[in-house]
Specification:
Layout (H helix, E strand, L loop, with lengths): L1 E3 L10 E2 L3 H4 L1 E4 L9 H8 L5 H9 L4 E2 L2 E2 L11 E4 L2 E4 H7 L10 E4 L3 E6 L15 H8 L7 E2 L8 E7 L2 H12 L4 E9 L8 E3 L1 E6 L5 E6 L10 E10 L2 E8 L6 H8 L13 H9 L7 E9 L6 E5 L4 H16 L5
Parallel strand pairs: 11-18
Antiparallel strand pairs: 1-7, 2-7, 3-6, 4-5, 4-6, 8-9, 9-11, 10-11, 12-17, 12-18, 13-16, 14-15, 16-17, 18-19
Length: 341
């Protein structure tokens, strides 16, 4: 027997119902969802259905807005009526739907009616997908079942810790995402890199190109600025502290590309400590023996304009204890090193 909708479904688990007249749904867009892209609206309502299937039913015309065809990037408005076709999944997938993400709250740096800023720990994805059943946003929604809306404003890599913004109102989400897109936010990270970073190297302006490995895993590489598939990417670098064999950097990104900091720093011959994708793997083994068992990249400072008050906000997240301990260890090595004559 097949059931309707469930998480982590694969294409083979899904089929359109044979009697759509009985099971088609019509959703009226409320004020809170106004201005949202159609694909994001559907992904929210078809929880667990793969995004590839969501885009397929949009392209096929099975999804209608006010009885007309629409594209994935169509902006829906309050009062719009969206036709949602029935989607069936197997019992196996339906059983998984009965096991939602575990409810979890995260340390708060700021919370008000419009947004919340959490201090994300390393090792936690921001959302489910790509082999991850759930992430920060799914756990927050389980912990706050009465919240009308909780949406990620931006993203952090799973291995990166630090400040993550979550919107509680649709208007705040749009306002904040516009700021990120227009580069009106200030995003500064702390990164420990291999070797002595050149004092004069303060700006990295190199295009980045995303590609897939044979096993389907995503990677990013530096490419030429005239590469039609490259995305211009700008990273500002400031030396915070020089240590034995490594340098602590303050890194500000002016563009928010996938793996931007990791790839840009590694491309200069100074990979981030503990980076298992773009790092120095032999150095990482040494670091693990010294107690550093994660990537040393932390979203330390975030500046933005508050969507309700219009005031400029600056948030800071202290280095997690495991990173702070390693800095202390490196500082001790520096102090005990013999001075040059």
């Amino acid at each position: 027997m097949n059931r309707i909708i469930g998480p982590q479904a694969t294409q083979s688990d899904i089929s359109v119902a044979t009697n759509p007249a009985l099971e088609v749904k019509w959703l009226t867009v409320d004020e809170e969802s106004a201005g949202q892209r159609l694909d994001n609206f559907l992904i929210r309502h078809l929880k667990g259905v793969p995004k590839t299937h969501v885009y397929r039913i949009i392209r096929s015309g099975e999804v209608r807005v006010n009885k007309g065809r629409a594209s994935a990037d169509t902006r829906i408005e309050a009062g719009d009526v969206v036709r949602l076709p029935p989607v069936r999944i197997s019992d196996k997938v339906a059983e998984k739907a009965a096991r939602p993400a575990p409810a979890r709250e995260f340390p708060l740096l700021l919370e008000d009616d419009a947004l919340m800023a959490i201090d994300k720990p390393a090792g936690v994805a921001v959302h489910g997908g790509s082999g991850v059943s759930f992430g920060v946003i799914e756990q927050l929604r389980q912990a706050r079942p009465l919240a009308k809306l909780l949406e990620l404003v931006h993203r952090l890599d799973r291995e990166t810790s630090g400040i993550l913004l979550v919107a509680k109102k649709r208007s705040a989400l749009k306002h904040l995402q516009d700021q990120f897109r227009e580069r009106e936010t200030g995003k500064t990270y702390l990164a420990l890199v291999q070797g002595s970073w050149p004092e004069k190297l303060k700006v990295i302006d190199s295009a980045l190109h995303k590609f897939l490995l044979p096993d389907g895993e995503r990677r990013v590489k530096v490419t030429s600025n005239d590469d039609p598939e490259g995305m211009r990417s700008i990273t500002l670098v400031k030396v915070a502290e020089r240590l034995v064999g490594c340098t602590l950097l303050e890194v500000t990104i002016k563009t928010g590309r996938t793996h931007q900091i990791r790839v840009h720093l590694a491309s200069q011959g100074h990979p981030i400590a503990g980076d298992d994708k773009y790092g120095d793997f032999e150095w990482n083994k040494v670091l693990q023996k010294q107690g550093l068992k994660r990537m040393f990249l932390h979203a330390w400072r975030l500046q933005f304009t508050h969507p309700l008050t219009g005031k400029r906000v600056e948030l800071k997240s202290n280095l997690p204890s495991e990173l702070q301990l390693y800095v202390h260890h490196a500082q001790s090595k520096l102090q005990s090193a013999p001075s040059s004559v």
